[in-house]
Specification:
The complex is a heterodimer of chains A (415) and B (409). Chain A is α/β, with parallel strands linked by helices and 415 residues long. Chain A is built from twelve helices and 20 strands. Chain A folds into two domains: 315 residues, TIM Barrel, CATH 3.20.20.70; 83 residues, Alpha-Beta Plaits. In chain A, 30% of the residues lie in helices and 22% in strands. In chain A, strand 3, helix 1 and strand 4 form a beta-alpha-beta unit. The longest helix of chain A is centred in the last third of the chain and has 15 residues. Chain B is α/β, with parallel strands linked by helices and 409 residues long. Chain B folds into three domains: 108 residues, Fumarate Reductase Iron-sulfur Protein, Chain B, domain 2, CATH 1.10.1060.10; 156 residues, FAD/NAD(P)-binding domain; 126 residues, FAD/NAD(P)-binding domain (3-Layer(bba) Sandwich), CATH 3.50.50. In chain B, strands 3-2-1-4-17 form a five-stranded parallel sheet, sandwiched between helices. Classes of the chains: A alpha/beta (415), B alpha/beta (409). Chains A and B meet through helix 11 of A and helix 2 of B.
């Protein structure tokens, strides 16, 4: 079995691997965290501590499905810890004592400078390695808390400042995606002293509506609320925010802990390539358990091997430079589809999608039940290759648009 | 008798049904929909299911075929819809019958009423003799056009071979009962325990505007050496006996079955399911030319029926049956406790009809220029349930044309 060093340094703390539980139901008490550490997780962001335990509703989850696939997306209505503060602090102390090589991050939330300071001091005393400030829970019953803070740059700055004045621990500000521009609040947090950004928390959502009872799901005594959406479906939104943080000269260099739909090592590698140096997971654990760490770590090791890197940090942010503004993209050429008749099973899906969703370039032979591309009409969108169920359509010939690409060779186009 | 009465094939759960529907490639020119003799459009109902429209899917099936829940279970789909399935190019065809069953079960659970009573009542009367799949489908179609339809059935209950032939573990009676109820609810009248003889047939021709003969292949074939032997039972008799008693019939320590068609497979699997320890099936054809559907053969094998292929019976002395191989110098003798012959069925000639190779001579289902039509096995076409449905749909068209002309005169 492959062995590669997955360790990475984040805010001066060494993680044996970049994978952490995010602050959520999966890291809610000593027993859970101990099992996660034993399973191989590099770190845990303990479920957010707050002065007064939260009062939760039942039921509190729902999922989005597609065909027979569950958990395409996941909705939760939980807030923060349900335990008395002293219980959580005791568990943090015990975990740090028993798992000194694993990283324990204490997530906290408060509504005043004073409360932020007290909590920060308490978790530092309890032995936490760093602190994450929950500026982003979108379903707090106190509407001044959670994502209400993360949408307000002044509050972000102010609360970071308060926390930093009370603790020597590194501080991460956890961002909400329920905002247009994350850089503004991230920058304000940095100005307040935040050492890192974690992104994203969940997206405000209504997943499904019960058509009989005419109420959103989950139904809590006949009613429902807007609350956080997570899982595979939110990955694209998370990656976009992280890229934007890495694009902005003012936030470019702040360490990022990536969160949002990480389920496989491939998802993890994508976050790393876009600039995250640690990664946080909840939804996939809720569906599959802590054991997913096995394939996250092993898969990532194989990827490092393929890439020929010995240090995970060498991969961080390598894709950022390849995301450019739309106006800068090379629009001189198009790529025609290449159809493999041996692989084709004659379903005609490429024809349907090309006709109904693109430029009517795919032609259909009713007798042989095989498609051909009319290059006079083809714009090279390659929708056909996406809908083909057997992977029979690939990128084929590259041609320059009329009057374009002077002096260039089509073989130099990276496809 | 649980093994006999309980439907052998597991029903899909909602998750499995949508999973199977998701395997469908949703073809542009779906081969499945071109291959159904009954004109069923699997591509359409699978797509409806895929987009979570189960009610719409049920309409697609039911509006096309009044026996949709039956065909879902008994149709040899590998010869029809599944034959050209594009998914075969990847792994294996979509389980169209199982999806159809899921949707028709859904329809039944919701007590959907898809078949509509006629908007206009016509005075013309149609008599249908026989209530097998051809007669039932025809009754539904003509009734929905407004005709006054009466079914004449010789047995105690409607259904013909569906009722008295196909074993319960393939087609439970409650499924059949519901399909028949839907048809009767349209206003189809029926007379059971009512065989029609030549005299009554003549009367019906005068009293009804059209008379349809759908009496099927009533007679089981036999072989000369077994004729009139009290130890030898005919397949159709055995299947009827088993079905009437819900599988609760005496079993022998061993039974020899002769024959290799779908009926023979029903016989051997019934024997096994009611607890016969040893079932030996000797088949004229070799496996590469087998007549039974692959599904039925597989089931017989799974139940550990001993199938001996390529042998033809040579002699029977009242105890021992001797077979010889059709091509090899090989002879086997078996002394069974019980013998069942499943060597095919034939038509029972009646009503002075002309026959050619077991099928009534007609012109577009019409006998000469009379008001007599035929449907089902005795009409030209495949001798399957779906084949009977096909004849019913086509016959309905010609009968309606004939009666419309008569009405307009």
């Amino acid at each position: 079995m492959i062995k590669k060093d997955l360790s990475i340094e984040f805010l001066g703390v060494k993680f044996k691997n970049p994978f952490m539980l995010s602050s959520s139901p999966v890291g809610n008490c000593y027993d859970m965290c101990a099992k996660a550490f034993r399973s191989g997780w590099g770190g845990i962001v303990y479920k957010t501590l707050i002065k007064d335990p939260c009062d939760e509703c039942s039921p509190r989850y729902d999922m989005l499905t597609k065909e027979a696939t569950p958990f395409v997306g996941f909705k939760n209505m939980e807030q923060l810890t349900e335990h008395p503060l002293e219980d959580d602090l005791r568990d943090i102390t015990r975990l740090k004592k028993e798992f000194p090589d694993c990283v324990l991050v204490a997530s906290i939330m408060a509504g005043s400078d004073e409360d932020w300071k007290i909590l920060a001091k308490q978790v530092e005393d309890a032995g936490a390695d760093m602190i994450e400030l929950n500026f982003s829970c979108p379903q707090m019953t106190d509407t001044h808390l959670g994502s209400a803070i993360g949408q307000n740059p002044d509050l972000c700055r102010q609360y970071c400042k308060a926390v930093k004045s009370a603790t020597k621990l590194p501080v991460i500000a956890k961002m909400t995606p329920n905002i247009t521009d994350m850089c503004e609040v991230a920058l304000a947090s940095m100005e307040g002293g935040a050492d890192a950004i974690s992104a994203i928390n969940t997206i405000k959502s209504i997943l499904n509506v019960d058509l009989d009872k005419e109420v959103g799901l989950p139904i809590v005594n006949g009613k429902s609320s807007i609350s956080g959406y997570s899982g595979k479906a939110v990955k694209p939104v998370a990656l976009r925010f992280i890229q934007q943080l890495r694009d902005n000269p003012k936030t470019r260099n702040i360490p990022i802990s990536g969160i949002g739909g990480i389920e496989t090592w491939r998802d993890a590698a994508e976050f790393i390539l876009l600039g995250a140096s640690t990664l946080q997971v909840t939804t996939a654990i809720m569906q599959y358990g802590y054991r997913i760490i096995d394939d996250l770590c092993n898969g990532l090791m194989h990827y490092m091997e393929e890439k020929g890197v010995d240090h995970l940090s060498d991969l961080v942010g390598r894709a950022n430079k390849n995301v450019i503004p739309a106006e800068e993209l090379d629009r001189d050429f198009k790529i025609y589809p290449k159809i493999d008749d041996d692989k084709c099973v004659g379903c005609g899906r490429c024809y349907i999608s090309c006709y109904d969703g693109s430029h009517q370039a795919m032609e259909w032979d009713k007798k042989t039940r095989r498609p051909t591309c009319n290059t006079d009409k083809c714009v090279g969108c390659l929708l056909c290759s996406l809908v083909c169920p057997v992977g029979a359509i690939s990128k084929g010939e590259v041609v320059f648009k009329p009057g374009r690409g002077k002096g260039r060779k089509t073989k130099d186009v990276i496809i | 008798m649980k093994d006999y009465l309980k439907e052998a094939e597991e029903a899909y759960t909602p998750l499995l049904a949508i999973e199977e529907a998701s395997r469908c490639l949703l073809c542009l020119d779906a081969p499945c929909s071109k291959n159904c003799p009954a004109g069923t459009d699997p591509a359409r109902f699978i797509r409806a299911l895929r987009f979570l429209n189960e009610k719409g899917a049920a309409e697609v099936i039911r509006e096309n075929n009044a026996l949709g829940a039956i065909c879902a279970r008994v149709c040899p789909q590998e010869k029809y819809c599944k034959l050209g399935c594009s998914r075969s190019g990847i792994d294996k065809p979509i389980e169209i019958g199982k999806i159809q069953r899921y949707i028709t079960d859904f329809e039944a659970n919701l007590k959907m009423e898809i078949l509509r009573k006629p908007e206009v009542e016509l005075k013309q009367k149609v008599a249908i003799i026989g209530s097998g799949p051809g007669g039932l489908e025809l009754a539904a179609l003509l009734r929905m056009k407004g005709y006054q339809v009466t079914i004449f059935e010789k047995d105690e209950k409607l259904g013909g071979y569906l009722r008295y032939g196909i074993p319960s573990y393939r087609l439970p009676n409650d499924v059949l009962d519901l399909e028949i109820k839907r048809i009767l609810d349209l206003g189809v009248k029926n007379l059971v325990n009512h065989p029609v003889d030549d005299d009554e047939f003549k009367k019906l021709k005068e009293e009804y505007d059209a008379v349809v003969v759908g009496t099927g292949y009533e007679l089981a074939k036999t072989l000369p050496m077994f004729e009139d032997d009290p130890h030898v039972e005919l397949a159709t008799q055995f299947l009827k006996r088993a079905k009437n008693e819900g599988g609760d019939i005496d079993v022998y320590s061993d039974t020899l079955v002769i024959g290799g068609g779908d009926v023979a497979m029903d016989v051997v699997t019934t024997l096994k399911r009611i607890g016969t320890p040893r079932v030996i099936d000797v088949v004229y054809e070799e496996f590469n030319e087998f007549r039974a559907s692959q599904k039925e053969l597989n089931e017989a094998r799974a139940l550990n029926v001993s199938i001996i292929d390529g042998y033809v019976p040579m002699s029977y002395d009242g105890k021992v049956v001797t077979f010889k191989h059709r091509h090899l110098p090989s002879v086997i003798s078996i002394e069974p406790k019980h013998i069942i012959l499943a060597v095919g069925q034939v038509v029972r000639p009646q009503f002075d009809l002309d026959y050619n190779l077991g099928e009534v001579v007609t012109n577009n289902y019409r006998v000469g220029d009379s008001n007599v039509f035929v449907v089902g096995d005795i009409a030209k076409g495949d001798k399957t349930v779906v084949g009977a449905v096909k004849t019913a749909k086509e016959a309905a068209y010609f009968i309606d044309s004939y009666l419309t002309k008569a009405r307009e005169k």
